[in-house]
Amino acid sequence: MLSSHAARLVLSLALLTAPLPTWAGFKDFNIPPSDATVDVKAFSVANFTLNNLTSVFLNPVLPGREDLTLPIHAFLVEHKPSKESFMFDLGMRKDPENLPPAFAGFFTSKAITFDAFKDITDLLKEGGVSLNSIKTVFWSHAHFDHIGDMSKFPKGTKIVVGSKTDTSIFPDNPNSDLQASDLDGKQLVKLDFDKSKLTIGGLKAIDQFGDGSFYLLDTPGHLSGHMTALARTTPTSFILLGGDTLHHVGQLRPTAALQSTVPCPGDLLASTRTAISTSSFWSVNSTPGAFDLPSRAQPFFALSDVAGSFYADPGEATISVAKFEKFDADKDFLTIVAHDASVGGVLPLFPESLSTWQEDGLKEKMAWLFLDERNEAFELSPVSANDQPTSSLDEEYTKCVQQCSANAQKDRRMWMQRRSKVDWDMLMEEE
Predict the structure, then answer these.
(1) ∠ CA 320-325-328, rounded to 5°
(2) What is the pLDDT of residues 185-227, one digit of tens each?
(3) What b/e readout covers 269-281, taking b as 16+ CB neighbours within 10 angstroms?
(4) All structural domains of the chain with their residue ranges
(5) CA triplet 321, 205, 161: central angle to 5 degrees?
(6) Which of 142, 69, 57, 128 is closest to 99 using CA atoms?
(7) Which CATH topology does 28-246+343-357 take?
(8) Tell me: the pLDDT tens digits for 137-153?
(9) DSSP at 91
């Protein structure tokens, strides 16, 4: 399988030779028109720090950036036609010592640390939302930081997952995040994307309610059965709930298309010239010590493909991220991933609704926050004095870019295809 780093570079370098995309709107994604909508409200359930674990999420890791602090988001969704509410992801249970041993060990060993927090059931109750009103819980995937503590939900609650999700439990499966209490008394439903004839943005899709208000999308790679959600908040605008398709928005941005539709604000753009390390990141018009964002056509980070990577299939996950790029660059879509640390303090949280995100300009406010040196998600310069890239492939690519002229983009694309032994057009082929 192609490494995620090579796949990302092949995919993104090819964009340098392609015509600059223009904003087309939701109809360009094969989404049927509908007036049925949902209301989405976000929760920030917890923040946890993964100590010396950045490398299992993204590449390159710059010196001093070995620890990664991430939020955990969960979403309350109301289907407006029926007034029924459901959850998309639950975040983490507040007593991780009671997880199966393979995962409790992350916390007892202090590999993952966190401050005490209220879990999603506490937050819902405090907000006046009865757990009895939540008839269905969608898990993007069955990792402990998404499944919550289902034992607190009423018997009969429906759990919906992708059909390829492994729902075996501990101790039968010693490596499972799941235990009997997660499934006891619940209805388990597996969505079979292979039987669906609908594709949206190149991703297999299922229309959950049959009215175009809420779609589930097959986004494999992070974990078998991983799925994301596309929530229609107005007839022409959507929120893409990305789960763990990626963990840092620098794995999704920048792209040439996003810079065309949602340009980086001028003051932040100016600061990136010196804030972003040119020893580790490059673009056609950059010079040593002066980074040029507008000529950067590919995301800063690749998905980790090292031993112990949190992506079960980094190559497949990279293709899912590449398909996300088109959504992310379109003004009709707001992308929110479960662990985006950049949006803290800007993303409206429950009880506020996200349904007016487009008229509120939320996409423009959030898209480039990760480039701000003061932002929690900033990972683009070293903390220590040793300003060197940690990836030999990055180093090799940087030398290539610096040696090639701006009109030799095609040669660079062919070089990356030879380097990775893959044809990028094959990778982008829609299902």
Answers:
(1) 125
(2) 999 999 999 999 999 999 999 999 999 999 999 999 999 999 9
(3) bebbeebbbbbbb
(4) 28-246+343-357
(5) 85
(6) 142
(7) Metallo-beta-lactamase; Chain A (3.60.15)
(8) 999 999 999 999 999 99
(9) -
